[in-house]
Amino acid sequence: MTLARLGLAGTLLGLAGCSNSAPQVTAEPMNAEDIRRELVNLPLCGTPKTGPLAGKPVCTIHFGDGTATLAGDLKVSRILWDIQGRAVCRRDIREAPGQQLCVTYDRLSNGHYRNSDGVDFCIGPCPEPAR
Questions:
Q1: Tens digit of pLDDT per residue, the chain (131 long)?
Q2: Tens digits of per-residue pLDDT, 75-110?
Q3: Which of 5, 30, 98, 102 has the most CB within a 10 Å radius?
Q4: What's the rounded Cα separation, in Å, for the pair 35 and 90?
Q5: 22-50 b/e with 16+ CB inside 10 Å = b?
Q6: What is the largest CA-CA distance in the chain?
Q7: Is residue 67 in a domain?
Q8: What are phi and psi of 32, to 5 degrees?
Q9: pTM of the entire structure?
Q10: The total number of structural domains that make up the chain
Q11: Is residue 128 part of a domain?
Q12: What residues pair up with 87 in beta bridges, in sequence order?
């Protein structure tokens, strides 16, 4: 991992998740070109509601070279990703190609995004949720 990406991974660990208390908004499906144009090389930060990182802020950067860095819960993972149709498919760099998981993305009207796993996220750093 390059020094720049290592520093970036450390920065990602400090970014806050997006607020899940936003009102319902309209979702617009994103295609492959939308994803490449709007989401690649930027920190996408949110808080999953399920899975091993449920309730913990997580940030992911999908790099243009097909690699990604996911940081959350004091862990950093290196990921491989590509686009299949309108889905982003990714897997840990140590996993076999058949173990990839695919999600689609929607653009929300409030400047946030949502994936098909139900995770709302924003381009980080994200504002702290209202307390």
A1: 454 544 444 444 444 444 444 455 689 999 999 999 999 999 999 999 988 889 999 999 999 999 999 999 999 999 999 999 999 999 999 999 889 999 999 999 777 999 999 999 999 877 665 44
A2: 999 999 999 999 999 999 999 988 999 999 999 977
A3: 30
A4: 14
A5: eeeeeeeebeeeebeeebbeebbbbbbee
A6: 42
A7: yes
A8: -55, -45
A9: 0.76
A10: 1
A11: no
A12: 84, 104
Q: Is-contact 44 113, C-beta < 8 A? A: yes
Long-range contacts of 26-33 (CB under 8 A, 24+ apart): 26/108, 26/109, 27/106, 27/107, 27/108, 27/114, 28/106, 28/107, 28/108, 28/109, 29/86, 29/104, 29/105, 29/106, 30/86, 30/104, 30/105, 30/106, 30/107, 30/113, 31/86, 32/83, 32/85, 32/86
- Let me know if residue 90 belongs to a domain: yes
Angle at 80 between CA 5 and CA 94, to 5 degrees: 95
- 38: tokens are 């709007």
Residue 9 belongs to domain spanning:
3-123
